[in-house]
Amino acid sequence: ASSRAWSGEDDWEPAVAADPSSNYVYQMTTRYSGPTACRRCALPAMIFRRSVDGGLTWEADRFISPSRRTQHDPMIEVATDGAIYVAWLEQYRPGVMFSKSTDRGDTWSEPVAFTALFRRPRWNDRPVLAISDDGRHVYIAFNSSDSFVVASHDFGATWSTPVRTNADKRYWFHSAGAVAPDGTVYFGTVDFSQDYTGSANIGVLRSADGGSSWSHTLLDVSAEMPDCGWAAGCYFGFLGSSIGLAVDDAGRIVAAYHFGVTPGASQRMVARASADGVNWGARVALSGGTLEHNNFPAVAAGPGRNDFRVVWQGSAAGHTDTWNTWYRRTTDGGATWSAAVRLSDTTTAAPYRHADGYRFPYGDYLELAVDRDGWNHVIWGEGMSYVGPGGSWYTMGR
User: Fold this and answer.
1) Contacting residues for 106 by C-beta, under 8 A, at least 6 apart
2) Which residues, in sequence order, are bridge partners of residue 132?
């Protein structure tokens, strides 16, 4: 299907999830313009919507949790009983928030703020949410410069004390998480120096004891990322490495990430696979020579074994304003991949779109979900520059 804009508002950093037991599909986005939820409510705000027919049509937008504080970084997952789990950020304090709906998004539980629930850390940023299939085990990774993970083992009713997973002085970001069928938890991470200069470490956190302790496996080291000063408002570090990962029904893990070989050079997208999260296969190239900058991967597992799909954003060599959203799939656990498919067709006009793509990836991430029938639901941000304006775009297909 062709790509469609969610709205005419200024949206970025969207999220998507498919109900594994029904035709419901859900989306969230960070919205910077338009009506507010109340007279003193802030923008940007968390916007939620649902589809009852597998993503063909969408109901009206809703505010998840009206607030006077700005909101960012939506994450959404759905358990096998249809319960929806969401996380987002409200400034750096109270920071990461968690809520749940058991009636398909009609009502939501009182949000949990972890800086209010625990004394440390006193601020946090960038939540990544992962749940077990049944929703009993819920994990949220976030950073406070250091890497932390908080866990619930009663469907989000109560929470363990946040566990710090690193012992260095670097700045950690999580960008993907998954819970394997045997309960092992994985989060994809990248750690940087405090000012983003120098190399970045790309790795995977793993816990086999319900989040009480964590080990870190280094997958790769990237040279310093390229600058993005050619895009208005873009800060050094925006094009730094990030990682996506997913686990299939057999417990196999596939990770996709981008890295640079020399400082300041553009970065290539690769995939690696593992049966245990500790021992990883060799890199398999995802981005070809015709793509220069490659960023913001997302990985999802299909309904069967060894079926993984990857999406990311990449620009044509020599043209920093020709970004597109790309898709590839493997059905042999990551050994070989289908040819790259461009998802961001430009049949629908926007100020930041032209025949060859869009001007800039809008926001720090995109998302991909696979429904019970094997359909892909992909959502991403496009914009004029880092400061926008832009929009959240989505498509579905096989």
Assistant:
1) none
2) none
Residue with tokens 């057999």: 250
Calculate the CA 23 to chain-centre distance: 22
Q: Tell me what pLDDT residue 106 has.
A: 97
Buried b (16+ CB within 10 A) or exposed e, 222-231: bbbbbebeeb
Q: Are 156 and 183 in contact (CB under 8 A)?
A: no
The token pair at 124 is: 């946090």
Peptide bond into 389 cis (omega under 30): yes
The answer to whether 105 and 123 have CB atoms below 8 angstroms apart is no
Q: CA of 363: how far to CAs of 74, 321, 360, in Å?
A: 12, 15, 9
Nearest Cα residue to 186 out of 238, 124, 132, 117: 132
Q: Which two tokens stand for residue 345?
A: 């067709």
| Rounded Cα–Cα distance for residues 280 and 308 (Å) | 16
Q: Count CB-CB contacts under 10 A for residue 116.
A: 12
pLDDT tens for each residue of 11-57:
999 999 999 999 999 999 999 999 999 999 999 999 999 999 999 99
* Number of residues that this document lists for the chain: 398
- 44: preceding bond cis by omega (within 30 degrees): yes
Listed residue (283, 274, 207) closest to 246, CA to CA: 274
Does residue 257 carry a pLDDT above 80?
yes
Residue 289 has pLDDT above 90, yes or no: no
Torsional sign, CA 210, 257, 346, 357: positive
The two tokens of residue 53 are 């027919």
Reduced to 3 states (helix: H, G, I; strand: E, B; else coil), residue 193 is: coil
Q: Which amino acid is at 336?
A: T
Residue 102 CA to residue 109 CA, distance in Å, equals 9
Radius of gyration of the chain (CA): 19
